[in-house]
Amino acid sequence: MASKHLYFQICLRVLLLVITSLVFAHLYLKEDYILSVYIAILLITQTILIIRFLNKTNRKIAYFFNAIENNDSTISFPYDIKTASIRELNSSLNRVNNLLREAKISIKEQEQYYQTILEEAETGILVLNETGHIILSNKTAKQLLNYQHLTHIQQLQPISESLFQTLKKNHGFDQKLIQIPNERESIHLTVKASKLIIKEKNMLMVVIQNIHKELDNQEIDSWQRLIRVLTHEIMNSVAPITSMSEKLLGYFKNNGELIKPETITQEKIVQTAKALDTINNQGKNLIKFTDSYRTLAKIPEPDKKLLKVQTLFETVRILLSQEEGIDRISFKTSISPNDLEVYADENLITLVLLNLTKNAIQSFIHQNNGLIVLSGKKNYSGTVTLKVSDNGPGIPENEMYKIFIPFYTSRKNGTGIGLSLSKHIMKLHHGSIEVKSKPNVQTDFSLHFQRGLGG
Protein backbone atom coordinates (compact mmCIF):
# COMPACT_ATOMS: atom_id res chain seq x y z
CA MET A 1 0.00 0.00 0.00
CA ALA A 2 2.85 2.38 0.88
CA SER A 3 4.50 1.86 -2.52
CA LYS A 4 1.20 2.62 -4.31
CA HIS A 5 0.84 5.93 -2.47
CA LEU A 6 4.44 6.85 -3.25
CA TYR A 7 3.92 5.96 -6.90
CA PHE A 8 0.76 8.08 -7.03
CA GLN A 9 2.46 11.06 -5.35
CA ILE A 10 5.45 10.96 -7.70
CA CYS A 11 3.27 10.59 -10.82
CA LEU A 12 1.04 13.48 -9.73
CA ARG A 13 4.00 15.78 -9.09
CA VAL A 14 5.67 14.85 -12.38
CA LEU A 15 2.38 15.42 -14.24
CA LEU A 16 2.00 18.89 -12.68
CA LEU A 17 5.61 19.64 -13.58
CA VAL A 18 5.00 18.66 -17.22
CA ILE A 19 1.79 20.74 -17.43
CA THR A 20 3.54 23.77 -15.91
CA SER A 21 6.41 23.38 -18.38
CA LEU A 22 3.98 23.29 -21.31
CA VAL A 23 2.16 26.40 -20.03
CA PHE A 24 5.48 28.22 -19.62
CA ALA A 25 6.55 27.29 -23.17
CA HIS A 26 3.19 28.40 -24.60
CA LEU A 27 3.29 31.81 -22.85
CA TYR A 28 6.91 32.37 -23.76
CA LEU A 29 6.25 31.68 -27.45
CA LYS A 30 3.34 34.17 -27.30
CA GLU A 31 5.80 36.69 -25.86
CA ASP A 32 3.73 37.06 -22.69
CA TYR A 33 6.93 37.54 -20.66
CA ILE A 34 5.39 38.85 -17.45
CA LEU A 35 3.10 35.83 -17.00
CA SER A 36 5.94 33.59 -18.19
CA VAL A 37 8.08 34.80 -15.29
CA TYR A 38 5.37 33.82 -12.78
CA ILE A 39 4.98 30.42 -14.43
CA ALA A 40 8.79 29.99 -14.40
CA ILE A 41 8.84 30.70 -10.65
CA LEU A 42 6.05 28.12 -10.19
CA LEU A 43 8.01 25.67 -12.32
CA ILE A 44 11.15 26.12 -10.20
CA THR A 45 9.11 25.77 -6.99
CA GLN A 46 7.54 22.50 -8.20
CA THR A 47 10.98 21.16 -9.15
CA ILE A 48 12.35 21.99 -5.70
CA LEU A 49 9.34 20.41 -3.99
CA ILE A 50 9.59 17.14 -5.93
CA ILE A 51 13.33 16.94 -5.20
CA ARG A 52 12.69 17.57 -1.50
CA PHE A 53 9.91 14.94 -1.49
CA LEU A 54 12.16 12.29 -3.08
CA ASN A 55 15.10 13.18 -0.85
CA LYS A 56 12.93 12.91 2.26
CA THR A 57 11.71 9.44 1.29
CA ASN A 58 15.18 8.29 0.21
CA ARG A 59 16.82 9.55 3.40
CA LYS A 60 14.23 7.73 5.51
CA ILE A 61 14.76 4.41 3.71
CA ALA A 62 18.55 4.85 3.64
CA TYR A 63 18.51 5.58 7.38
CA PHE A 64 16.51 2.40 7.97
CA PHE A 65 18.94 0.22 5.99
CA ASN A 66 21.95 1.81 7.67
CA ALA A 67 20.37 0.94 11.02
CA ILE A 68 19.90 -2.68 9.87
CA GLU A 69 23.53 -2.84 8.72
CA ASN A 70 24.67 -1.55 12.14
CA ASN A 71 22.36 -3.99 14.01
CA ASP A 72 20.36 -1.10 15.45
CA SER A 73 16.79 -2.30 16.03
CA THR A 74 15.78 0.57 18.34
CA ILE A 75 14.74 2.91 15.55
CA SER A 76 11.09 3.88 15.18
CA PHE A 77 9.27 6.07 12.67
CA PRO A 78 6.31 8.27 13.71
CA TYR A 79 2.75 7.40 12.72
CA ASP A 80 1.25 10.89 13.17
CA ILE A 81 2.14 12.07 9.66
CA LYS A 82 -0.41 13.94 7.58
CA THR A 83 0.87 12.59 4.25
CA ALA A 84 -0.72 9.18 3.76
CA SER A 85 2.14 7.78 1.66
CA ILE A 86 4.80 8.73 4.22
CA ARG A 87 2.62 7.50 7.09
CA GLU A 88 2.15 4.09 5.47
CA LEU A 89 5.85 3.91 4.56
CA ASN A 90 6.70 4.55 8.23
CA SER A 91 4.26 1.83 9.24
CA SER A 92 5.85 -0.69 6.84
CA LEU A 93 9.37 0.15 8.01
CA ASN A 94 8.34 -0.19 11.67
CA ARG A 95 6.70 -3.55 10.94
CA VAL A 96 9.81 -4.90 9.17
CA ASN A 97 11.99 -3.56 11.99
CA ASN A 98 9.85 -5.36 14.59
CA LEU A 99 10.17 -8.64 12.67
CA LEU A 100 13.94 -8.21 12.50
CA ARG A 101 14.10 -7.47 16.22
CA GLU A 102 12.03 -10.58 17.07
CA ALA A 103 14.25 -12.71 14.82
CA LYS A 104 17.39 -11.44 16.57
CA ILE A 105 15.90 -12.18 20.00
CA SER A 106 14.90 -15.67 18.86
CA ILE A 107 18.40 -16.39 17.51
CA LYS A 108 20.00 -15.17 20.76
CA GLU A 109 17.70 -17.47 22.75
CA GLN A 110 18.70 -20.38 20.53
CA GLU A 111 22.37 -19.62 21.08
CA GLN A 112 21.84 -19.58 24.84
CA TYR A 113 20.04 -22.95 24.72
CA TYR A 114 22.79 -24.57 22.66
CA GLN A 115 25.50 -23.03 24.82
CA THR A 116 23.79 -24.48 27.90
CA ILE A 117 23.55 -27.92 26.31
CA LEU A 118 27.23 -27.90 25.37
CA GLU A 119 28.36 -26.51 28.72
CA GLU A 120 26.45 -29.12 30.73
CA ALA A 121 27.55 -32.09 28.60
CA GLU A 122 29.90 -34.47 30.39
CA THR A 123 31.81 -34.83 27.13
CA GLY A 124 34.51 -32.29 26.28
CA ILE A 125 33.94 -30.53 22.97
CA LEU A 126 36.33 -28.35 20.97
CA VAL A 127 35.64 -26.73 17.58
CA LEU A 128 38.71 -25.59 15.60
CA ASN A 129 39.12 -23.65 12.37
CA GLU A 130 41.76 -24.27 9.69
CA THR A 131 44.30 -21.98 11.36
CA GLY A 132 44.11 -23.86 14.65
CA HIS A 133 42.09 -21.26 16.52
CA ILE A 134 39.65 -22.76 19.03
CA ILE A 135 36.23 -21.33 18.16
CA LEU A 136 34.36 -23.18 20.90
CA SER A 137 35.34 -25.08 24.03
CA ASN A 138 32.89 -26.25 26.68
CA LYS A 139 33.42 -26.48 30.45
CA THR A 140 34.20 -30.20 30.42
CA ALA A 141 36.94 -29.79 27.78
CA LYS A 142 38.61 -27.07 29.86
CA GLN A 143 38.46 -29.26 32.96
CA LEU A 144 39.87 -32.32 31.19
CA LEU A 145 42.70 -30.31 29.66
CA ASN A 146 43.18 -28.25 32.85
CA TYR A 147 43.11 -24.99 30.88
CA GLN A 148 40.53 -22.26 31.55
CA HIS A 149 41.04 -20.08 28.46
CA LEU A 150 41.54 -22.09 25.29
CA THR A 151 42.04 -19.97 22.19
CA HIS A 152 44.55 -21.89 20.04
CA ILE A 153 45.80 -25.48 19.81
CA GLN A 154 49.33 -24.16 20.48
CA GLN A 155 48.26 -23.98 24.14
CA LEU A 156 47.87 -27.78 24.14
CA GLN A 157 51.52 -28.47 23.31
CA PRO A 158 52.79 -28.19 26.91
CA ILE A 159 49.83 -30.33 28.07
CA SER A 160 50.23 -33.13 25.53
CA GLU A 161 52.61 -33.12 22.57
CA SER A 162 50.73 -36.08 21.11
CA LEU A 163 47.36 -34.29 21.25
CA PHE A 164 48.87 -31.11 19.80
CA GLN A 165 50.50 -32.92 16.85
CA THR A 166 47.29 -34.86 16.18
CA LEU A 167 45.07 -31.74 16.08
CA LYS A 168 47.68 -29.72 14.18
CA LYS A 169 47.04 -31.88 11.11
CA ASN A 170 43.45 -30.61 11.09
CA HIS A 171 42.06 -33.91 9.83
CA GLY A 172 39.23 -36.05 11.13
CA PHE A 173 40.31 -39.24 12.87
CA ASP A 174 38.83 -42.21 14.71
CA GLN A 175 38.97 -42.61 18.46
CA LYS A 176 42.48 -42.34 19.94
CA LEU A 177 43.80 -42.77 23.45
CA ILE A 178 45.74 -39.77 24.81
CA GLN A 179 47.61 -39.73 28.11
CA ILE A 180 47.90 -36.42 29.97
CA PRO A 181 50.11 -36.25 33.09
CA ASN A 182 49.15 -34.11 36.07
CA GLU A 183 50.47 -33.59 39.61
CA ARG A 184 49.10 -36.86 41.02
CA GLU A 185 48.53 -39.25 38.14
CA SER A 186 48.11 -39.55 34.41
CA ILE A 187 44.67 -39.03 32.92
CA HIS A 188 43.66 -41.21 29.99
CA LEU A 189 41.41 -39.48 27.48
CA THR A 190 39.74 -40.73 24.34
CA VAL A 191 39.79 -38.17 21.52
CA LYS A 192 37.88 -38.28 18.25
CA ALA A 193 37.60 -35.62 15.55
CA SER A 194 35.12 -35.04 12.71
CA LYS A 195 35.23 -32.55 9.86
CA LEU A 196 32.46 -29.95 9.58
CA ILE A 197 31.67 -27.33 6.96
CA ILE A 198 29.98 -24.22 8.34
CA LYS A 199 29.35 -21.28 6.01
CA GLU A 200 31.76 -22.80 3.47
CA LYS A 201 34.55 -22.89 6.09
CA ASN A 202 36.21 -26.12 7.15
CA MET A 203 35.92 -26.83 10.86
CA LEU A 204 37.08 -29.68 13.07
CA MET A 205 34.90 -30.88 15.97
CA VAL A 206 36.90 -32.69 18.65
CA VAL A 207 35.17 -34.91 21.24
CA ILE A 208 37.15 -35.62 24.43
CA GLN A 209 36.23 -38.07 27.20
CA ASN A 210 37.81 -39.32 30.37
CA ILE A 211 37.57 -43.11 30.03
CA HIS A 212 37.59 -43.56 33.79
CA LYS A 213 34.18 -41.88 33.96
CA GLU A 214 32.61 -44.18 31.41
CA LEU A 215 31.00 -47.48 32.36
CA ASP A 216 31.99 -49.21 29.12
CA ASN A 217 32.86 -48.62 25.47
CA GLN A 218 29.20 -48.75 24.47
CA GLU A 219 28.48 -45.72 26.65
CA ILE A 220 31.29 -43.83 24.92
CA ASP A 221 29.84 -44.61 21.50
CA SER A 222 26.42 -43.45 22.68
CA TRP A 223 27.77 -40.05 23.67
CA GLN A 224 29.56 -39.62 20.38
CA ARG A 225 26.42 -40.55 18.45
CA LEU A 226 24.48 -38.10 20.60
CA ILE A 227 26.88 -35.28 19.68
CA ARG A 228 26.54 -36.18 16.01
CA VAL A 229 22.75 -36.12 16.25
CA LEU A 230 22.79 -32.80 18.12
CA THR A 231 25.13 -31.32 15.51
CA HIS A 232 22.97 -32.70 12.69
CA GLU A 233 19.71 -31.32 14.15
CA ILE A 234 21.25 -27.95 14.97
CA MET A 235 22.77 -27.59 11.50
CA ASN A 236 19.51 -28.64 9.85
CA SER A 237 17.72 -25.87 11.75
CA VAL A 238 20.39 -23.17 11.50
CA ALA A 239 21.18 -23.70 7.79
CA PRO A 240 17.79 -22.34 6.54
CA ILE A 241 18.17 -19.33 8.86
CA THR A 242 21.64 -18.59 7.44
CA SER A 243 20.43 -19.11 3.88
CA MET A 244 17.44 -16.80 4.28
CA SER A 245 19.56 -14.13 6.00
CA GLU A 246 21.97 -14.16 3.06
CA LYS A 247 19.02 -13.93 0.67
CA LEU A 248 17.64 -10.91 2.56
CA LEU A 249 21.04 -9.20 2.42
CA GLY A 250 21.02 -9.83 -1.32
CA TYR A 251 17.82 -7.78 -1.56
CA PHE A 252 19.46 -4.72 -0.05
CA LYS A 253 23.15 -5.07 -0.95
CA ASN A 254 25.01 -5.32 -4.23
CA ASN A 255 28.76 -6.00 -4.24
CA GLY A 256 28.93 -5.06 -0.58
CA GLU A 257 27.14 -1.73 -1.06
CA LEU A 258 23.60 -0.78 -0.10
CA ILE A 259 21.31 -0.54 -3.09
CA LYS A 260 19.44 2.67 -3.82
CA PRO A 261 16.20 2.91 -1.85
CA GLU A 262 14.16 3.79 -4.90
CA THR A 263 14.97 0.39 -6.42
CA ILE A 264 13.24 -1.47 -3.61
CA THR A 265 9.95 -2.90 -4.78
CA GLN A 266 6.85 -3.92 -2.88
CA GLU A 267 7.58 -7.51 -3.85
CA LYS A 268 10.95 -7.38 -2.06
CA ILE A 269 9.29 -6.02 1.07
CA VAL A 270 6.72 -8.84 0.96
CA GLN A 271 9.45 -11.48 0.40
CA THR A 272 11.45 -10.01 3.28
CA ALA A 273 8.48 -10.27 5.63
CA LYS A 274 7.84 -13.89 4.57
CA ALA A 275 11.47 -14.84 5.08
CA LEU A 276 11.51 -13.27 8.54
CA ASP A 277 8.35 -15.14 9.42
CA THR A 278 10.04 -18.40 8.40
CA ILE A 279 13.12 -17.54 10.49
CA ASN A 280 10.83 -16.90 13.45
CA ASN A 281 9.11 -20.29 13.04
CA GLN A 282 12.47 -22.03 12.70
CA GLY A 283 13.57 -20.41 15.94
CA LYS A 284 10.49 -21.70 17.74
CA ASN A 285 11.19 -25.20 16.44
CA LEU A 286 14.73 -24.99 17.79
CA ILE A 287 13.43 -23.94 21.20
CA LYS A 288 10.99 -26.87 21.14
CA PHE A 289 13.89 -29.16 20.24
CA THR A 290 16.00 -28.00 23.20
CA ASP A 291 13.00 -28.22 25.54
CA SER A 292 12.67 -31.89 24.50
CA TYR A 293 16.31 -32.41 25.39
CA ARG A 294 15.81 -30.99 28.88
CA THR A 295 12.99 -33.44 29.68
CA LEU A 296 15.56 -36.25 29.78
CA ALA A 297 17.04 -34.73 32.94
CA LYS A 298 13.73 -34.24 34.77
CA ILE A 299 12.73 -37.87 35.43
CA PRO A 300 12.11 -38.44 39.18
CA GLU A 301 13.43 -41.42 41.12
CA PRO A 302 11.00 -44.36 40.76
CA ASP A 303 8.44 -44.84 43.53
CA LYS A 304 8.30 -48.62 43.17
CA LYS A 305 5.61 -51.00 44.40
CA LEU A 306 4.08 -54.29 43.31
CA LEU A 307 1.81 -53.79 40.30
CA LYS A 308 -0.50 -56.26 38.61
CA VAL A 309 0.56 -56.62 34.99
CA GLN A 310 -3.05 -57.20 33.91
CA THR A 311 -4.03 -53.82 35.40
CA LEU A 312 -1.09 -52.11 33.70
CA PHE A 313 -2.10 -53.47 30.28
CA GLU A 314 -5.75 -52.47 30.83
CA THR A 315 -4.66 -48.92 31.73
CA VAL A 316 -2.61 -48.70 28.53
CA ARG A 317 -5.58 -49.92 26.45
CA ILE A 318 -7.88 -47.27 28.00
CA LEU A 319 -5.36 -44.44 27.51
CA LEU A 320 -4.94 -45.41 23.84
CA SER A 321 -8.64 -45.76 23.10
CA GLN A 322 -8.82 -42.32 21.44
CA GLU A 323 -5.56 -42.59 19.55
CA GLU A 324 -5.84 -41.90 15.81
CA GLY A 325 -5.97 -45.12 13.76
CA ILE A 326 -6.76 -47.31 16.78
CA ASP A 327 -9.96 -48.61 15.12
CA ARG A 328 -7.90 -50.36 12.39
CA ILE A 329 -5.75 -52.30 14.88
CA SER A 330 -6.34 -55.51 16.84
CA PHE A 331 -5.07 -55.93 20.40
CA LYS A 332 -4.17 -59.10 22.26
CA THR A 333 -2.74 -59.73 25.73
CA SER A 334 -0.85 -62.71 27.08
CA ILE A 335 0.17 -62.98 30.76
CA SER A 336 1.85 -65.93 32.47
CA PRO A 337 1.06 -66.55 35.25
CA ASN A 338 -2.31 -64.80 35.25
CA ASP A 339 -1.60 -62.99 38.53
CA LEU A 340 1.86 -61.81 37.39
CA GLU A 341 3.16 -58.73 39.23
CA VAL A 342 6.09 -56.42 38.63
CA TYR A 343 7.92 -54.21 41.15
CA ALA A 344 8.01 -50.79 39.48
CA ASP A 345 6.85 -47.18 39.44
CA GLU A 346 3.33 -47.26 38.00
CA ASN A 347 3.47 -43.86 36.27
CA LEU A 348 6.92 -44.36 34.73
CA ILE A 349 6.31 -47.91 33.47
CA THR A 350 2.91 -46.89 32.09
CA LEU A 351 4.71 -44.08 30.23
CA VAL A 352 7.18 -46.58 28.74
CA LEU A 353 4.40 -48.95 27.64
CA LEU A 354 2.47 -46.02 26.13
CA ASN A 355 5.54 -44.87 24.19
CA LEU A 356 6.17 -48.32 22.77
CA THR A 357 2.51 -48.96 21.93
CA LYS A 358 2.04 -45.55 20.31
CA ASN A 359 5.09 -46.18 18.14
CA ALA A 360 3.53 -49.46 17.03
CA ILE A 361 0.19 -47.77 16.24
CA GLN A 362 1.90 -45.02 14.22
CA SER A 363 3.84 -47.61 12.23
CA PHE A 364 0.52 -48.94 10.86
CA ILE A 365 -0.30 -45.73 8.97
CA HIS A 366 -0.20 -47.60 5.61
CA GLN A 367 -1.40 -50.97 6.96
CA ASN A 368 -4.92 -52.18 7.79
CA ASN A 369 -4.24 -55.58 9.37
CA GLY A 370 -2.27 -54.25 12.35
CA LEU A 371 -1.88 -56.48 15.41
CA ILE A 372 -0.35 -55.42 18.73
CA VAL A 373 0.34 -57.97 21.47
CA LEU A 374 1.02 -56.96 25.07
CA SER A 375 2.59 -59.86 26.95
CA GLY A 376 4.18 -60.50 30.31
CA LYS A 377 5.83 -63.55 31.81
CA LYS A 378 8.08 -64.68 34.62
CA ASN A 379 11.13 -66.53 33.34
CA TYR A 380 12.71 -69.62 34.89
CA SER A 381 15.41 -67.39 36.39
CA GLY A 382 12.77 -65.38 38.24
CA THR A 383 13.05 -62.25 36.07
CA VAL A 384 9.93 -60.57 34.74
CA THR A 385 9.65 -59.53 31.08
CA LEU A 386 6.98 -57.25 29.64
CA LYS A 387 6.79 -57.16 25.87
CA VAL A 388 5.14 -55.01 23.19
CA SER A 389 4.98 -56.81 19.83
CA ASP A 390 3.54 -55.78 16.46
CA ASN A 391 3.43 -57.01 12.87
CA GLY A 392 4.23 -53.62 11.34
CA PRO A 393 6.99 -52.56 8.92
CA GLY A 394 9.60 -52.95 11.66
CA ILE A 395 13.03 -51.36 12.02
CA PRO A 396 15.74 -51.70 9.34
CA GLU A 397 18.92 -53.35 10.57
CA ASN A 398 21.05 -50.28 9.81
CA GLU A 399 18.85 -48.16 12.12
CA MET A 400 18.66 -50.53 15.10
CA TYR A 401 21.59 -48.93 16.94
CA LYS A 402 20.25 -45.41 16.38
CA ILE A 403 16.75 -45.70 17.79
CA PHE A 404 17.74 -45.13 21.43
CA ILE A 405 19.82 -42.04 20.62
CA PRO A 406 18.08 -38.89 21.90
CA PHE A 407 16.41 -36.89 19.08
CA TYR A 408 16.86 -39.57 16.44
CA THR A 409 13.55 -40.21 14.69
CA SER A 410 12.45 -41.60 11.35
CA ARG A 411 9.03 -39.93 11.58
CA LYS A 412 8.38 -36.48 10.15
CA ASN A 413 6.74 -35.10 13.30
CA GLY A 414 8.59 -37.24 15.85
CA THR A 415 10.60 -35.71 18.71
CA GLY A 416 13.08 -38.55 18.97
CA ILE A 417 13.01 -38.75 22.78
CA GLY A 418 10.41 -41.48 23.43
CA LEU A 419 12.73 -44.49 23.19
CA SER A 420 15.71 -42.78 24.85
CA LEU A 421 13.36 -41.74 27.67
CA SER A 422 12.10 -45.33 27.97
CA LYS A 423 15.66 -46.64 28.14
CA HIS A 424 16.52 -44.15 30.88
CA ILE A 425 13.43 -45.14 32.90
CA MET A 426 14.40 -48.82 32.68
CA LYS A 427 17.91 -47.97 33.90
CA LEU A 428 16.37 -46.20 36.90
CA HIS A 429 14.54 -49.49 37.60
CA HIS A 430 17.87 -51.38 37.31
CA GLY A 431 16.38 -53.14 34.31
CA SER A 432 16.92 -53.00 30.55
CA ILE A 433 15.07 -52.62 27.26
CA GLU A 434 15.74 -54.84 24.24
CA VAL A 435 14.51 -54.70 20.65
CA LYS A 436 14.29 -57.37 17.97
CA SER A 437 12.78 -56.74 14.56
CA LYS A 438 12.03 -58.70 11.45
CA PRO A 439 10.49 -56.11 9.07
CA ASN A 440 6.88 -56.80 8.06
CA VAL A 441 6.83 -59.91 10.27
CA GLN A 442 7.30 -59.05 13.93
CA THR A 443 8.95 -56.38 16.08
CA ASP A 444 9.42 -56.96 19.83
CA PHE A 445 10.32 -54.40 22.49
CA SER A 446 11.08 -56.26 25.74
CA LEU A 447 11.35 -54.72 29.21
CA HIS A 448 13.48 -56.88 31.50
CA PHE A 449 13.23 -56.45 35.29
CA GLN A 450 15.93 -57.94 37.50
CA ARG A 451 15.33 -61.04 39.55
CA GLY A 452 13.76 -60.25 42.87
CA LEU A 453 12.08 -57.10 41.51
CA GLY A 454 9.19 -58.97 39.93
CA GLY A 455 6.09 -60.43 41.55
TrEMBL record:
Residues 110-148 form the PAS domain. Pfam families: HATPase_c. It is an enzyme of class 2 (transferase). Residues 86-113 form a coiled coil. It catalyses: ATP + protein L-histidine = ADP + protein N-phospho-L-histidine. The chain crosses the membrane at residues 7-29, 35-54. Its EC number is 2.7.13.3. One of its GO terms (molecular function) is protein histidine kinase activity. It comes from the Bacteria. Residues 229-453 form the Histidine kinase domain. GO terms for biological process: phosphorelay signal transduction system. The keyword Transmembrane applies. Keywords: ATP-binding, Coiled coil, Kinase, Membrane, Nucleotide-binding, Transferase, Transmembrane, Transmembrane helix, Two-component regulatory system. Gene3D superfamilies: Histidine kinase-like ATPase, C-terminal domain, PAS domain. InterPro entries: HATPase_C_sf, HATPase_dom, His_kinase_dom, PAS, PAS-like_dom_sf, Sig_transdc_His_kin-like_C. PANTHER family: C4-DICARBOXYLATE TRANSPORT SENSOR PROTEIN DCTB (PTHR43065:SF46), SENSOR HISTIDINE KINASE (PTHR43065). This is histidine kinase. It comes from Echinicola soli.
